[in-house]
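Supplementary Methods. Inverse-folding protocol.

Structures were first reduced to a discrete structure-token string of length 307. This string, shown here, constituted the complete conditioning input.
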């Protein structure tokens, strides 16, 4: 399998990825934080040129660090998509300043807009919808907003889907008023069945935004359970809990092979399925995740002549 337009010499593969998995992992994306990016000597040795890399903005991270990370990735040939978490942005002037810095220093044209993980807003913004309403993202080429296959208790405290569904309908309507390409980037989940059911349900409700499905990359089981609980992962958490009860698997690293294989097979059988791409959360480390994705068929944005 020819992949790649990047420096690392790939290790010999022990298995050949299925055509379905290769197709499903094409144009995968991944995210990084400034403090983890600092530990990566050369991203070009890890990720194919053209990979979309989200830059996660955790509360307390200076905007200077965010912009520097975005600029570095852009120089290395990656499509950079920084997070804009509404609840940590104090006001319109701050938002305008951030956008100007990203555009001026890193030529950023893509953004992920989300509410953010803090309970109380730092200023006037509470949701990604309020960020969109400012009109400050008018010249962006691509805008992603959050999707929640298993709901979100920050939005629906009772565990339902009413507020989440209303927000999706608003985002769908907004997408029809902008020239930017929009998509839903989702929280990670561990079970294919509920993901498929959710994706089909939003499509039936008139939401035609393509889905970039969140998937947790390879990691220690204990690490995944910790992050899953902290991030409010819903019923699919039971997949990890069941695995944790099996002493033969407890110490083995989790890999997303099963959930991705099932989603890939469903996509192959149903070409109009609205999941467009896979977005990895590298909870076990970006190097581990990048290697796994490539070894299992991932080839973000590789020119056809080089495949």
């Amino acid at each position: 399998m020819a992949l790649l337009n990047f420096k690392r010499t790939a290790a010999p593969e022990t298995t050949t990825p299925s055509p379905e998995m290769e197709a499903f992992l094409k144009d995968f994306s991944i995210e990084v934080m400034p403090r983890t990016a600092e530990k990566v000597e050369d991203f070009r040795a890890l990720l194919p040129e053209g990979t979309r890399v989200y830059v996660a903005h955790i509360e307390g991270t200076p905007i200077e660090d965010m912009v520097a990370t975005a600029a570095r990735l852009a120089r290395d040939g990656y499509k950079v998509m920084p997070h804009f978490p509404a609840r940590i942005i104090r006001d319109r002037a701050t938002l305008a300043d951030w956008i100007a810095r990203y555009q001026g220093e890193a030529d950023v044209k893509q953004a992920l807009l989300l509410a953010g993980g803090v309970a109380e807003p730092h200023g006037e913004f509470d949701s990604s919808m309020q960020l969109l309403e400012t009109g400050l993202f008018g010249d962006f080429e691509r805008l992603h907003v959050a999707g929640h296959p298993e709901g979100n208790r920050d939005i629906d405290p009772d565990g339902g889907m009413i507020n989440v569904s209303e927000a999706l309908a608003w985002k769908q309507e907004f997408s029809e008023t902008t020239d930017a390409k929009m998509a839903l980037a989702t929280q990670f989940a561990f079970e294919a069945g509920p993901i498929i059911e959710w994706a089909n349900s939003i499509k039936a409700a008139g939401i035609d935004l393509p889905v970039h499905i969140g998937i947790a990359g390879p990691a220690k089981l204990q690490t995944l359970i910790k992050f899953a609980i902290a991030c409010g992962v819903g019923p699919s958490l039971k997949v990890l809990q069941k695995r944790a009860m099996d002493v033969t698997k407890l110490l083995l690293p989790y890999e997303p092979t099963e959930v991705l294989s099932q989603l890939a097979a469903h996509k192959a059988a149903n070409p109009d399925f609205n999941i467009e791409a896979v977005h990895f959360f590298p909870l076990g480390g970006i190097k581990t995740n990048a290697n796994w994705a490539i070894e299992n068929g991932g080839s973000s944005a590789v020119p056809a002549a080089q495949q």
